[in-house]
Amino acid sequence: MSWQQVGRESDIAVRDMKSFVIQGEAITVYHLDEGWYATSDICTHQDCSLSEGDIEGEEIVCWCHGGAFDIKSGRATRMPCTVPVEAFQVQIRDGWIEVDLS
């Protein structure tokens, strides 16, 4: 595993998200009620930043065209998005958010 520290746990409120660039890759970290998740920040439909969208339940809704992805799995859940975004494991260690890029 290749865990990368991205920020403090206190940096992201519950039901919020924040984007980071990790090893040249744009990643969005989400803090949902039941835990922490991360996906690629780039919508597979038209290269828009997902971190500029809205969290609805367990989905991230892209601001460009209203397509959506499951935050936990990266699965495309709403048209026009059909190709999933990559999802990454997240852990909290000593108050720090870490993302596994492997």
TrEMBL record:
This is Rieske domain-containing protein. Residues 4-99 form the Rieske domain. GO terms for molecular function: 2 iron, 2 sulfur cluster binding; metal ion binding; monooxygenase activity; oxidoreductase activity, acting on paired donors, with incorporation or reduction of molecular oxygen. The keyword Metal-binding applies. Belongs to the bacterial ring-hydroxylating dioxygenase ferredoxin component family. The keyword Iron-sulfur applies. Keywords: 2Fe-2S, Iron, Iron-sulfur, Metal-binding. InterPro entries: Rieske_2Fe-2S, Rieske_2Fe-2S_sf. Its cofactor is [2Fe-2S] cluster. SUPFAM superfamilies: ISP domain (SSF50022). PROSITE patterns: RIESKE (PS51296).
